[in-house]
Amino acid sequence: MTETADPPPSSDDVRESRQRAGRAIRDLSHAFIGRHASVEQIDRLSEVLEGITAELWPQDHRSRFDAFDRERDIDYPQGRFTHDFDDRPVSGTASPYGLDLELHRVGDEIEALVTLRSAHEGAPGRSHGGVVAALFDDVFGFVLGVIKQSAFTGELTIRYHAATPLFSELACRVRFDHQDGRKIYLVGELTERSSGNLIATAKATFIAVDPEMFARLTAERPPPPDESSSPTA
Ligand SMILES: CCCCCCCCCCCCCCCC(=O)SCCNC(=O)CCNC(=O)[C@H](O)C(C)(C)COP(=O)(O)OP(=O)(O)OC[C@H]1O[C@@H](n2cnc3c(N)ncnc32)[C@H](O)[C@@H]1OP(=O)(O)O
Q1: Does the keyword ATP-binding apply (predicted)?
Q2: Distance 183 CA to ligand 1 centre (A)
Q3: 55 CA to middle of ligand 1, Å?
Q4: Do residues 173 and 110 lie in contact, with contact meaning Cβ atoms separated by under 8 Å?
Q5: What is the pLDDT of residue 6?
Q6: How many CA atoms lie within 13 A of 110 on its CB side?
Q7: Is a pLDDT exceeding 60 seen at residue 89?
Q8: From CA 80, how far away is CA 104, in angstroms rounded?
Q9: Between these two residues, 50 and 61, which has the higher pLDDT value?
């Protein structure tokens, strides 16, 4: 174990710094995928990134549970809102896997505005379908906060009606549909804002779990494995 740097890991300074770095990593992914670079530039990039990664691995393990717990207690206000779980993939402002969502609550619906970019491209000129699926899964997660239930995704079905455009603002709008015992059914759709075109529809079954289960997951989680080298390194 090594000393963690000041200020304390939960401070606003660290949080803001992480959010900035998260955005920088995401922007890097788009610049890297979307632009030519010389071998010299790419090698320099590798050296800088490998150096920073080597600095981070010896640091203490970080837990995301405080933010996760806070997230479960949030009452999302009407209109635009933000959330505290910065590491959350897709909607987390500090997550390298974030999609830079702008979140809104409209009644009991959640709307996420998003513009997909270079690194999201799958087939030429359109988003990878898995990115769209991840978008729906995560945005559905906010409906759990609206209906105040703890649940896991059990099934997620996406119907891709049209190519998902890049570089054009999209609206992902989702809502509670009905509940049957522990099975919570959610539905939603993705549209392009400029044209109003329907791009995809989604249905999900979330399975409600005892909120205490989350506490048990936290308490019983084994220490993470040593990740200090990539599987192919
Ligand atoms: C207060 C606010 C909280 C908000 C909180 C925010 C925190 C911030 C979250 C960030 C992220 C969010 C958005 C990403 C959401 C994920 O990514 S969740 C992660 C992905 N999903 C998983 O890991 C789930 C993996 N599966 C499991 O853990 C277990 O199968 C489950 C889902 C807990 C169910 O297991 P179980 O409790 O043993 O359930 P079981 O008794 O077998 O079945 C109960 C009922 O559900 C049905 N069922 C079970 N599994 C399934 C399934 N997969 N599909 C359909 N039906 C099923 C059964 O048929 C049964 O139905 P009935 O017979 O009652 O009619």
Answers
A1: no
A2: 8
A3: 37
A4: yes
A5: 57
A6: 31
A7: yes
A8: 4
A9: 50
Note whether 118 and 171 are same-domain residues. yes
Ligand 1 lining (C-beta closer than 6 Å):
68, 71-72, 85, 88, 137-138, 141, 144-145, 148-150, 152-155, 181-183, 205, 207, 209
> Encoding tokens for residue 89?
């993939």
- Best mutation site among 207, 214, 218 for ligand 1 pocket (most ligand atoms within 8 Å of CB): 207
Map tokens 């996406």 to a residue.
158
Q: Given this model, what pLDDT does residue 2 score?
A: 46
Distance 214 CA to ligand 1 centre (A): 12
Model pLDDT for residues 26-45, shown as the tens digit of each residue: 999 999 999 999 999 999 99
Specify the residue for token string 């989604």. 202
The pLDDT of residue 225: 82
Pairing of strands 183-192, 198-208: antiparallel
Ligand 1 atom nearest to CA at 180:
65
Residues 178, 121 share a domain: yes
Give the atom of ligand 1 at the shortest distance from the alpha carbon of 85: 8
Give the distance from CA 117 to its chain's centroid.
15
- Does residue 3 register a pLDDT over 60? no
pLDDT at 161: 98
ipTM of the complex: 0.94
Shared-domain flag, residues 150 and 203: yes
Which residues span the domain enclosing 86? 65-215
